[in-house]
Amino acid sequence: MSLKNLNPTTAEKSQDMTDNSSDSTGSSNSEVKKRFTVIEPAVFLIYISTTMASAVLQNQQLYQTCVAVYDYDKEVCEPMLGVIAKNETSIAIETEIQPYVARIIMTSLVISSVLPAFLSLFIGPWSDKFGRRPVLVATFSAALTGHTITTILAGLSMITPLNPWIYILSTIPLTMTGGTCALITMVFCLVSDVSDEGGKARRMFFVDGALGIGTVVGNVISSYILAGTGTIGVFATAASFDLLALLYLLFFVGESLQVKHERKESKLREFFHFDLIKELINSCVKRRQLFNRAVIWCIMFTLVTTTFVQQGEVGLSYLFLRNKFNVTLQDFTTFNAASIVIKMIGCGLVLLLLRVIFKVPLLVISILGLLGCFMESLVRSLAQHFWEMYLGAVCGFMAGINSPMLQAVLAGLVEATEIGKIYAVISSLQTLSPLASAPVYTGIYNATLQSYPGAIYLLSASIYLVCFVLVTTLFIMQRIRARKSQSQVVA
Description:
With 491 residues, the protein is an all-alpha fold. Helices cover 78% and strands 0% of the residues. Residues 1-30 are annotated as: Disordered.
């Protein structure tokens, strides 16, 4: 069977749409199209806020650890804020305190993973019954609350030194509402609800673009706001962007589903309906023709494993760059922004040339994306100069395209009524990945901090290589199976 035959037929899709329209909580296209559901500006604002606050929060934790935990003078600890470059004294101090901060980051990642992973199994089905908007309002409000708490804590730290562990409080509101995972899942669900078959890909691209551009803008402006207003100004600005995003959502984005409020049970009781878990498990383990179950498991493994790498690196990349190359926050944010732009342009060109023009199979594009991830991590692990980190970004210009391509292959292997369940399992496992990746990466980084801090990227390169071999094997199996099918037809 060729990859082209993996997609559901038009008749099947039409039948699925007919079935969905008869559901008590389904959407009516004619009704939905009348509503304004352009959510991309809210996504853009929320990702500016999230990105600009994250790196500055690490600086604040370094500074508070230096002052409150290790009792150094404020003047000696000032370079930890990332505005001015480090001197020899501050370099030695930061080398001493970075393992402590790495443990705070690891703990924060673990806390923000456990509950969202559990909730993600229920949020999707619950939103099918009661709508996408309640979850979106809850997550946007939680993001605003979290950055408000961070702003208050940063203000209190100006009066008296605070233990940096207290900043974990700011992660609790978003964690209690499902985290960023729930937010993005609901955004994609809303876009899917209001788009026809031809418009879904375009709207998904716009959402991804809003997310990517918001991340770039947040990276670029954070260092300048920090230099002009200090940490309190950065966190207050982040909270302001959250407020604008929430107001936009409340006043300009309508519900994407026609929800009928006929149920007597409370919404909370409906949320924790454990029969949904049985359906999820059955969809993942049931037998399928032509070894498709094994293919699905391999794709799920690759998607979760790549997330494991990304979550392991996310909290340590800034600490690595400060330790290895003595970068300031502005250097770091500029590098992040450049890396994102390179990948956005690279992935766009790859899709245009390989998929649109030359019709290259999705698995081949995924293989090239994993190869880009491997090359980028390998170059980073061997880098001796800061410019070589930019070289790694150029070598990995296709990195990141593998995930959407694998998701597209996955969607073609299962029925439309099952894809939501499969994605829910993947989302839950991806959310749980920091539980494993944070201790592993933090432990390796702390153990090799003095001798070879780039060891974490060598681990990432090794994992990407395993995924590259696995997906390449899947593609070879697909080609062999397609040729056998053609031979049988000819015979």
